[in-house]
């Protein structure tokens, strides 16, 4: 038959032992992910299609692991965007982006120089976009 601990000192000792050996939880991970996204997007630059059709040059930072883009204004329904790394000299691939953040290049190396050519859905349309890198 099991004994029930009724002495306060024994109960305290048992609780202390459990606290030391209990595994840690990873409940802070989502907050860190959110903070990283906020930090990445918080450093975004805003540009207007029509002022230019290719933006940059920019240099990637440790702030973002990817290069992201979203529309924040204009009458275009979407834009086409690509990343042109200076060392390569041509677009990686074209990505359709709307008003939500869209990744246009993944796993970029810090310190990489690049430009972002854009195209709009219809000739004469305008677009204001943010680029986070």
Automatic annotation (TrEMBL):
Keyword Signal on entry: yes
Keyword Signal: yes
Signal peptide: 1-28
Keywords, sorted A to Z: Signal
Protein known as: Secreted protein
């Amino acid at each position: 038959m099991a004994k029930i601990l009724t002495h306060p000192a024994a109960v305290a000792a048992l609780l202390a032992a459990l606290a030391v050996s209990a595994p840690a939880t990873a409940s802070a991970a989502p907050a860190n992910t959110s903070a990283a996204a906020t930090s990445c997007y918080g450093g975004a630059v805003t540009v207007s299609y029509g002022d230019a059709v290719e933006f940059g040059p920019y240099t990637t930072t440790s702030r973002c692991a990817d290069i992201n883009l979203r529309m924040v204004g204009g009458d275009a329904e979407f834009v086409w965007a690509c990343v042109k790394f200076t060392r390569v000299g041509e677009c990686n691939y074209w990505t359709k982006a709307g008003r939500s953040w869209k990744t246009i290049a993944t796993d970029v190396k810090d310190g990489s120089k690049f430009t972002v050519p854009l195209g709009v859905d219809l000739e004469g349309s305008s677009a204001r976009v943010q680029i986070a890198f």
